[in-house]
Automatic annotation (TrEMBL):
<feature type="compositionally biased region" description="Polar residues">
    <location>
        <begin position="1"/>
        <end position="10"/>
    </location>
</feature>
<dbReference type="InterPro" id="IPR017871">
    <property type="entry name" value="ABC_transporter-like_CS"/>
</dbReference>
<dbReference type="InterPro" id="IPR027417">
    <property type="entry name" value="P-loop_NTPase"/>
</dbReference>
<keyword id="KW-0547">Nucleotide-binding</keyword>
<dbReference type="InterPro" id="IPR050166">
    <property type="entry name" value="ABC_transporter_ATP-bind"/>
</dbReference>
<keyword id="KW-0067">ATP-binding</keyword>
<feature type="domain" description="ABC transporter">
    <location>
        <begin position="35"/>
        <end position="260"/>
    </location>
</feature>
<dbReference type="GO" id="GO:0005524">
    <property type="term" value="F:ATP binding"/>
</dbReference>
<dbReference type="InterPro" id="IPR003439">
    <property type="entry name" value="ABC_transporter-like_ATP-bd"/>
</dbReference>
<keyword id="KW-0813">Transport</keyword>
<dbReference type="Pfam" id="PF00005">
    <property type="entry name" value="ABC_tran"/>
</dbReference>
<feature type="region of interest" description="Disordered">
    <location>
        <begin position="1"/>
        <end position="25"/>
    </location>
</feature>
<feature type="compositionally biased region" description="Basic and acidic residues">
    <location>
        <begin position="11"/>
        <end position="21"/>
    </location>
</feature>
<protein>
    <submittedName>
        <fullName>ABC transporter ATP-binding protein</fullName>
    </submittedName>
</protein>
<dbReference type="InterPro" id="IPR003593">
    <property type="entry name" value="AAA+_ATPase"/>
</dbReference>
Amino acid sequence: MAQTAQTLTKDTVRRAGDRSTTDSALAPAAAPYAARIEHVSKSFAGPAGAQPVLDDISLDVAPGEFVTLLGASGCGKSTLLNLVAGLDRPSAGSITTDGRPALMFQEHALFPWLTAGKNVELALKLRGVPKRDRRGEAERLLELVRLGGAYGKRVHELSGGMRQRVAMARALAQDSRLLLMDEPFAALDAITRDVLHDELTRIWRETDLSVLFVTHNVREAVRLAQRVVLLSSRPGRIAREWTVDIDQPRRIEDAAVAELSVEITEELRGEIRRHGRH
């Protein structure tokens, strides 16, 4: 279904994009953003009272943009991603997305009793795709992530990198405009991670998805993103942003990637020193 932005009220998470029932014949305009985060704060209850995790975060992700969230452990990166996904609600502020995002975790979270293809089909079923069309679409998505022919393989037959490819295909099966990724390659070896960086970049460029990607790896952030957003240590605030004006495809070892990574790393170290986080 085509989607449009709609009027917002404060302190909620919203999904822009439901077509009006009274104007269903009209073609809606595209939302000017994939995600809009406005003055969002989040606190959790603790023994000493409310513990702030995020403080006054405002950030837009444009349609088709790739943004990485970077920061030290405990700065609230994953918390922010969960808020955008709608898995939790902000304590203050508002979040709007152009439709419901797809979420990919560090762990593949595949169902081991299903084949690779059936794991992808499950997302298609939940999306309402007719049964007769699911296998063909699942095979197409597996082909997109370079797993053609793996439809019938069980999870235990797949390597770690292949499992993450299936998880990516399942996320893409949700047909979302916004893909949220929470350190999806952190547990992989360096070579596999490097290959999947290439694959993610290719898929992003082919599909025109918007991506919000959480990482603590500076070079990964620079290699992948059009924009890098650095969060301060807890409570997380936006400390600085960088536009990554380096042509794709990029390599981890590229001189321009290394140079910008050094600059961002120095900022990150400064944030850690200021807040005493390691």
